[in-house]
Design brief:
The protein is mainly α. The chain has 35 helices and no strands.
Length: 581
């Protein structure tokens, strides 16, 4: 067997590792068989079942240094990157291919269009559309795949006018073309036209049915979604998951669970959807029960459960599960979503020590600091008093959104930096970002800590300007603000004007203010309401007792102490979150 035959034999293997590929490549270069490089590239990519940065970098190196570059190899590389979700990498390869002056293949064009659709890169897609026209990739045969990819690009970008024109002019339509139109109308929220396209589709597949079910589910019409589901002759996991997800979004967790239980074969998406559903309705124990039932837990499941704990004010359990995930026996590397949930848990505990560890972990594992992570970290540092560090992260954000501004305003609020909070608020409004309910919590907290009553009240009354309805918590902060300033009667009148039932926290703020200013009359009213709402809390009796003592009403002090003893109540001892973590 000569050298060329040996190389072809090795290249014909069903699987080729990078090490083997490099050995074969070395022989091809030594013996001048550069014409075999395209075949080598295709074989390496076919051998890689999963994406590997090592494989990708090696293939890119071959393509860039090849003495006989060809369109087919570049097309295979672009398709490989697209299939494995590396869309920016795929588009960069397509651009490099153009610089080589190579005519793109159908693989290259359709993959590059898919990349532009996923990245919502309109200009890139328009340029490729021009090349499709230039090179004549249209009509029957392979041109159908390119036309379908182009149609899908316009549908995903929501440009249904151009998509419809292209669809009507297509010489040959397949089920993918019909499904692209269907998905496009559903994405743009036009259910009526989507239903018409669905009815006109000559050969519907399971994707067609699943798209319509998901469309109705997103619109909250679960009755119609269920009707379509029941009409299906063939269902897959996505069909069941669409129904489960729809019921979860609709707030009907019981129906979601009944579909989950009836599902012939569940996949990871099914488990994650149900865990997220229980998290949404606050049933953490049911979510944990499901999590424990799953064998071979992956990153998505850990993320769903850690987020569930963090979102439902159970931060210790979130961090415990996070630590379990890092255990060598489990050994699942967290991603941006995991870290964001873990940081949120630390924010709730007021423990900023976790922040530097997270940043170090990200550097070691090459995890990029995206907007979500940076915002979560700045929220942690701000709540823990490290305002300078929070500002550093805030100013480093490429795009400052509502969540980032709100986190900074809230941080400034709880740290008494009213001037900074006002400046951030004005900057946010100037940037055409509309504040939400939590933004105003931060602002009012800032005014309360700084004792700026008039400014705080103006901020409170301005909420309606931004279509934000004051919640019971906003009223609670205003009561605290009036109370601290000694304007107790105004605080009481505000409580009476509330359109909702005040909770114990609101009356408690007034009671605390009465203790501060020794107002017995209003203190008794506030304490009465507090005890009606939370009968077994001794703190309210203790505050009222102190108010009586300041007014030298010793008989009332004695009476309250006797009531406390008769009920067998005792003060709850103080504790620290920090000591127990």
């Amino acid at each position: 067997m000569n050298g060329t035959q040996m190389l072809i034999s090795k290249l014909g293997r069903s699987s080729l590792s990078v090490k083997q590929a490099k050995q074969v490549h070395a022989v091809t270069l030594i013996h001048g068989h550069c014409h075999l490089e395209p075949f080598l590239v295709r074989q390496i990519l076919l051998s890689a079942s999963n994406y590997s940065a090592t494989v990708a970098q090696y293939v890119h190196s071959i393509l860039r240094h090849s003495k006989s570059p060809d369109s087919s190899s570049w097309g295979c590389a672009i398709r490989f990157s697209t299939q494995h979700g590396q869309f920016r990498e795929a588009f960069a390869l397509y651009v490099q291919m153009q610089r080589w002056g190579l005519r793109p293949t159908t693989f290259a064009l359709s993959s590059a269009l898919k990349t532009c659709a996923r990245l919502a890169y309109r200009m890139g897609g328009l340029c490729i559309h021009g090349q499709v026209q230039k090179f004549g990739f249209s009509g029957a045969g392979d041109g159908v795949y390119v036309e379908t990819a182009l149609l899908d690009f316009y549908c995903k970008l929501g440009d249904m006018e151009i998509a419809r024109k292209m669809f009507d002019e297509m010489a040959e339509r397949n089920v993918v073309s019909w499904n692209s139109m269907l998905a496009g109308y559903l994405k743009s929220g036009d259910l009526m036209v989507a239903q018409r396209v669905f009815d006109e589709t000559p050969q519907r597949d399971v994707v067609s049915w699943n798209s319509m079910i998901s469309g109705y589910a997103r619109a909250g019409d679960m009755k119609k979604a269920l009707s379509l589901f029941q009409q299906m002759t063939e269902r897959n996991s996505a069909s069941w998951n669409a129904m489960i997800s729809g019921y979860v979004e609709f707030g009907d967790i019981e129906s979601a669970r009944s579909f989950f239980d009836a599902m012939p074969q569940r996949n990871k998406v099914s488990w994650v959807t149900m865990i997220s559903g229980y998290s949404k309705c606050g049933d953490v124990d049911s979510a944990r029960y499901l999590f424990d039932q799953v064998g071979g837990k992956d990153l998505l499941l850990f993320n769903a459960m850690i987020a569930c704990f963090a979102q439902n004010s159970r931060p210790k359990e979130a961090l415990k599960l996070f630590n379990n995930m890092l255990n060598p026996s489990v050994n699942i590397q967290p991603d941006e979503m995991t870290l964001t949930s873990a940081i949120s848990a630390c924010s709730q505990l007021g423990d900023s020590r976790f922040g530097p560890w997270i940043e170090s972990f990200m550097r070691r594992h090459g995890i990029e600091m995206d907007g979500h992570l940076a915002t979560a970290l700045l929220d942690l540092y701000a709540k823990c008093g490290s305002i300078d560090k929070a500002y550093e992260l805030f100013h480093g954000l490429r795009k400052k959104d509502l969540v980032a501004y709100t986190a900074m305003i809230l941080g400034c609020g709880i740290n008494g930096k009213a001037t900074d909070a006002i400046k951030l608020f004005d900057e946010m409004v100037d940037a055409q970002i509309c504040p939400n309910s939590i933004t105003f919590i931060g602002m009012l907290t800032a005014f309360s800590h700084a004792g700026l009553v008039e400014e705080g009240y103006h901020c409170f009354t301005s909420m309606k300007k931004y279509n934000v309805v004051p919640s019971v918590d906003h009223y609670g902060i205003m009561v605290d603000l009036f109370g601290r300033a000694g304007r107790l009667q105004e605080a009481l009148e505000l409580i009476k004007s509330m359109p909702m039932q005040p909770h114990a926290g609101v009356w408690g703020a007034l009671l605390l203010a009465c203790r501060l200013h020794n107002n017995v009359e209003l203190g008794e009213i506030a304490a009465q309401h507090c005890l009606e709402l939370e009968t077994d809390t001794t703190g309210y009796r203790s505050l009222l007792s102190n108010i009586y003592a300041s007014g030298e009403r010793w008989d009332d002090v004695k009476r309250l102490r006797n009531v406390t003893k008769e009920k067998g109540l005792s003060k709850i001892p103080g504790c620290s979150w920090m000591e127990s973590t």
